[in-house]
Design goal:
By secondary structure, this protein is α+β, with helices and mostly antiparallel strands. It has helices at 2-54, 68-77, 109-115, 158-161, 163-209, 223-258, 278-284, 303-315, 358-393, 400-431, 444-461, 480-496, 543-548, 555-565, and strands spanning 81-86, 91-94, 121-126, 133-142, 148-157, 263-267, 273-276, 319-326, 330-341, 348-356, 439-443, 465-470, 475-479, 503-510, 514-521, 569-575, 579-587. A hairpin with a 3-residue loop joins β8 and β9 (330-341). α11 (444-461) packs parallel to α12 and α12 (480-496) runs antiparallel to α14 (555-565).
């Protein structure tokens, strides 16, 4: 802007300077010409007066010298140069120069004009006798008869004629100089008053381009410029509001993306990662924030996934497939590659969406296994009931001993079938959170003793010792029946899978404001590879022995749901051939919305 101000100032100076020079030239010439005309008229008036004094005093050219004395007296009274010339051009008298040294004036312009009949002949030139610039005026001299006998001429220095004009021109020059200075000052002030606000508007615009939307135009100038500044302020306010909205939307979008259960990764047109969310890190079990700006090939090691991404780049279409990722543990992910417009025109970015469906597929498998196992478990007692019924109907009713034996077997199988159905129904209710809770303050030792009373006979048949260990009484606020069922299932399994002369003990205690109930045996143990599945429905480590023990295969599944229903968790530790330990952690103070169901 300073450069523009200098240009404007220089332009006005040049323009005003050129105008001043022209004005000065025209004005000075006009003044000089007016002075010359004025002085010339005065000189001509003097010449006519002098002509009237000497006209008719002599009759011939030869008598012209008789006028010298009279002209001499007149020259003493005036400063103008008086010259008397005969018709042949010879100077008869000159008041400033010796006439004998003056050349013939026949060729002088003013002389020729008079000879040609002009009343007054005028001309200005440099005098050859006085070497100064003079204005000449000549008139004819006549005798009494009206005949022309000579020429009378007056001359005056031009310098003297325009002397007053020089002073006027000097005043004019001073006026022009002062005007030029004032013009410079006004132009500087004007350009500053216009330039500074424009400079501020430019500054505001630059700050807006740098996304600094707090800056505003504050100067005052002409109405039009202030209007422009106000418009810029309105633009800044609008941009600030829009940017805040964009930031809020961006924040909402990032919060949404960061809290999605789907892994999200954004890849640009150069196949470089520009954004990831936390779930993507969890799925790939790697911190990907340090990989932003790198190629996705450095992150995805799955050939199938990379192939799917490349297919999306080639076809620029949505791609979808289930892919198994071999990381530490195998994960099954549902992959979607979605093309979206990029920031640059005619570019495409891609969103990689990974949805971990490993648990879903596992649950589907569990559900399938449950249906298969339930069908298998139900088929056995149903087949037994059907077979023995058919045998009895075919004639075995007549044999009382066979009849009693078959009826006992049918009762046993129907009881087992009833127990299995009850367990399935209970498990279904637990899954759907439909079990009523009757929470009360309980000492854990009391429930353990109740369980021991129930299982005492079964333990004595195998000579198994049942014991309780605790350092202090353990109190809980839980549902009495549910806790009893949990301990009954665990202790019952321990008695069933512990050889004769074994030990089954229950340890009670506290750990970090939690009650801990630990059921330990020295039985057959559970293989390491089987331990992750023991809580599945109908899953048995030793299927033949489990059926012989009368179990339904649902006990540990029920235990797991009951513990979770009481806001606790269960841990398993087992070693094959050495024994098994189930450790239950329950909160001392039970808090759950289901308390309202009491």
């Amino acid at each position: 802007m300073k450069q523009l101000r200098r240009r404007i100032l220089l332009f006005f100076l040049i323009l005003f300077g050129a105008f001043s020079i022209i004005f000065y030239y025209i004005s000075s010439n006009t003044f000089i010409q007016q002075a010359m005309d004025q002085q010339g008229e005065d000189l001509q008036a003097q010449l006519l007066t002098l002509q009237s004094q000497v006209d008719g005093r002599v009759e011939t050219q030869e008598d012209l010298p008789e006028l010298n004395e009279s002209l001499e007296e007149t020259s003493a009274l005036i400063s103008e140069r008086i010259t008397l010339i005969n018709l042949s051009g010879k100077v008869i008298f000159d008041s400033h120069v010796d006439q004998s040294s003056i050349e013939n004036h026949f060729d002088r312009p003013e002389f020729q004009e008079v000879l040609e009949g002009e009343e007054i002949g005028t001309y200005d030139r440099v005098s050859s006798s006085t070497d100064d610039f003079r204005y000449y005026a000549a008139v004819p001299l006549q005798n009494t008869s009206g005949e022309q006998i000579g020429i009378l001429r007056l001359s005056k220095k031009v310098e003297e004629m325009i002397g007053i004009t020089d002073e006027i021109v000097r005043y004019l020059l001073v006026f022009i100089t002062i005007s030029l200075i004032l013009t410079m000052l006004f132009t500087f002030y004007w350009t500053k008053r216009i330039g500074d606000p424009i400079e501020e508007i430019k500054f505001v615009a630059n700050k807006l381009s740098q996304q600094k939307y707090k800056v505003r135009y504050k100067s005052t100038s002409y109405q039009e410029i202030d209007g422009l500044g106000q418009t810029v302020n309105e633009l800044a306010g609008s941009l600030e509001s829009q940017m805040q909205e964009i930031k809020q939307n961006d924040k909402r979008l990032r919060e949404l993306i960061n809290h999605l259960v789907i892994g999200v990764m954004l890849i640009d047109e150069n196949r470089q990662i520009t954004m990831v969310n936390p779930i993507m890190n969890e799925i790939l079990e790697e911190n990907l924030y340090g990989k932003i700006g790198h190629s996705y090939l450095e992150v995805f090691k799955s050939f199938g996934l990379n192939q799917l991404i490349e297919a999306a780049y080639e076809k620029q279409e949505l791609q979808n497939r289930e892919i198994a990722l071999l990381i530490q543990d195998e994960k099954i992910v549902d992959v979607n590659i979605v093309p979206i417009p990029g920031r640059m025109k005619n570019t495409t970015n891609y969103i990689v969406l990974l949805y971990d469906i490993t648990e879903i597929r596992r649950l589907e498998k569990v559900r399938t296994d449950f249906v298969a196992n339930a069908s298998h478990e139900l088929r056995t007692p149903i087949t037994a009931l059907k077979g023995f019924s058919e045998t009895l109907l075919d004639g075995a009713l007549e044999d009382r001993e066979v009849l009693i034996e078959f009826l006992e077997i049918m009762l046993k199988e129907s009881s087992r079938l009833d127990l299995m159905v009850q367990d399935i129904l209970q498990l279904s209710k637990l899954e759907q959170k439909q079990v009523r809770l009757n929470v009360e303050a309980i000492e854990a030792k009391v429930i353990v003793k109740e369980v021991f009373q129930i299982l005492q006979q079964k333990a004595e048949l195998k000579n198994i010792e049942l014991s309780i260990e605790y350092d202090e009484p353990v109190y809980l606020e839980v549902d009495h029946d549910q806790l009893k069922q949990i301990i009954l299932n665990l202790v019952g399994n321990a008695v069933s899978y512990t050889p004769e002369n074994g030990i089954v003990k229950v340890e009670l205690g506290y750990d970090n404001q939690e009650a801990v109930i630990k059921v330990v045996d020295n039985g057959i143990g559970i293989p390491q590879e089987e331990q992750s599945r023991v809580f599945e429905r109908f899953y048995r480590v030793d299927k033949a022995r489990s059926r012989n023990a009368g179990g339904t295969g649902l006990g540990l599944s029920i235990v797991k749901y009951l513990v979770e229903n009481l806001n606790g968790f269960i841990e398993l530790n087992s070693e094959l051939g050495k024994g098994t330990s189930f450790e239950i952690h329950l909160p001392i103070k039970f808090e759950n919305k289901q308390l309202t169901q009491k």
